[in-house]
Amino acid sequence: MKTLVRRIFLLFLCLALPCAAMAESAADGEPVIHADFTLGLGLHADGFPPVDAHPRDWEAFLSKLTLSGSLDGTRFFQPDSRLYMEAAICVNGEVTVPFTYDGKGSYRYLVSPALCGDSVLFQAHNYLEFMLKPFYYLGLPTNYIAVLTYPNATVYLADSFYAPVKEMMDEAHAAAMEAAGGENPETLSYVITFERLLTLCGELNAVTTGDTSLQRVKRYMDALLAELYISETVVEGLKQTELMLYMLDPQARGMAVTETAGGMTCALGDTVVFKKTIAGAVTEISSQLPIAEESMISLSCRSADTGDAMDVSASVSVTEGGNTLLSLSLEGEGLPTEGALGGEGRVTVGFGGSELTEEPASQTFAFRWSRTSAELPCELSLTVDFLHPETGLPAASVYVSAALDASDASAFPDQLYDRQDFFGLNPVLLEEYKERWGLTIGAYLLPVALEMPIGVIDDVVNFMLETDILISLVE
């Protein structure tokens, strides 16, 4: 299985070779966006089946809480993002816990009177590793929470592996156009040599091998693959991508590319590794490749532009003989398109395969959104509902309303903060933090606690006892 998984990840890199025709990297000099916002969380008791908890008490409690404030940001989710926020947790509309958040690339600072006005540094490079501790010691799914709440890491890895691929594809396309006399032929065919592909493999390997200090690829895979215990095997495979190239193209013929108005086809050796077809508003992508004896990875994606929305369906599966080892599917309806002023839809994600100890139920999210203009300034409203897999009804919701406008770099203060990373937490630091901030945090959270129904208190205490969190805090 380890060999198979290693080949799967290497194959994903091979599939990425022609992706330069499908996407563009984020442009430099992105504008600064200002937002005055209010965010709320909701829970709907009627959306849950019978549970050993108190959903109605949670529904009443969460309806009293909001997060309100203003923020300025640029290059959202990029490794060099910048975000400055002045906000507060509010109870019944009243400011209760004010704080300042200042994000500078991988450095995230939190300042609040609840922390005696001290600044706390969260070094994002250490976040994924830190969140593995509750997974291993308490059995909590914090590794997946970390990956989802730190999209910058995903964007970094995608850009790092994609940039050399895009450079190679652009170079080959430009050379083919020059050979065609600068015209745009109905069919453009060219070959990327095996030697150039080997050079690409070296560049891809360097993404992993060259990052000896931060080890971002390793930390990301450790978090993403924690339950499968195969991250070391995958990382080793990402250091040797040329092995997949030799397997797919043993005769070193290179990759043949054919471009037409109706799509694109790429063949590596005797294998068609990528095919894209475009027919009107519908784009389809497919690939089915052998990765070992009797083993196959299949990918399919279909997107349809309906005018003011986009419908997308995609699936990836790994099979061995007639057995599906791993599978991932995504269905999106009513996804926003550029220029649209509103809409509604849903996204469903499903996982499966015999390699999973227990196949989880598909997760569905419904959304509604609107904005007053396609250009800034505008008012934005967004609601996302989590549909419980047993009832099909909204069980939890996120509400966002914001006034958006353009800003500039003067919105970001040039300020120095404390440099002690919270993610270096150990028993000594924990005691120091409790002694320094325990009373003020308690004082600021008291109005929040006073609004808690007894059922919420019972659920919180029971959860902390079951996971040993309470014991860790009081010891």
State which percent range the strand residues make up.
35-45%
From the spread of the alpha carbons, the general shape counts as globular
Number of strands: 18
Number of helices: 13
Structure commentary:
The two termini are 42 Å apart. The chain is globular. The model is unreliable at 1-28 (pLDDT under 50). 32% of the residues lie in helices and 36% in strands. The protein is α+β, with helices and mostly antiparallel strands and 475 residues long. It has helices at residues 2-15, 55-62, 127-130, 132-138, 142-149, 151-179, 194-209, 216-224, 231-238, 242-248, 427-450, 454-466, 469-474; strands at 32-43, 65-74, 82-91, 94-104, 107-111, 119-123, 187-192, 255-260, 263-268, 271-279, 282-292, 295-305, 309-320, 323-336, 342-352, 363-371, 378-387, 394-407. A hairpin with a 2-residue loop joins strand 3 and strand 4 (94-104). It has 13 helices and 18 strands. It has an 18-stranded antiparallel sheet.
List the helices and strands and how they pair.
Elements: H1 2-15, E1 32-43, H2 55-62, E2 65-74, E3 82-91, E4 94-104, E5 107-111, E6 119-123, H3 127-130, H4 132-138, H5 142-149, H6 151-179, E7 187-192, H7 194-209, H8 216-224, H9 231-238, H10 242-248, E8 255-260, E9 263-268, E10 271-279, E11 282-292, E12 295-305, E13 309-320, E14 323-336, E15 342-352, E16 363-371, E17 378-387, E18 394-407, H11 427-450, H12 454-466, H13 469-474
Antiparallel strand pairs: 1-2, 1-18, 2-3, 3-4, 4-5, 5-6, 7-8, 8-9, 9-10, 10-11, 11-12, 12-13, 13-14, 14-15, 15-16, 16-17, 17-18
Helix pairs in contact: 1-9, 6-7, 8-9
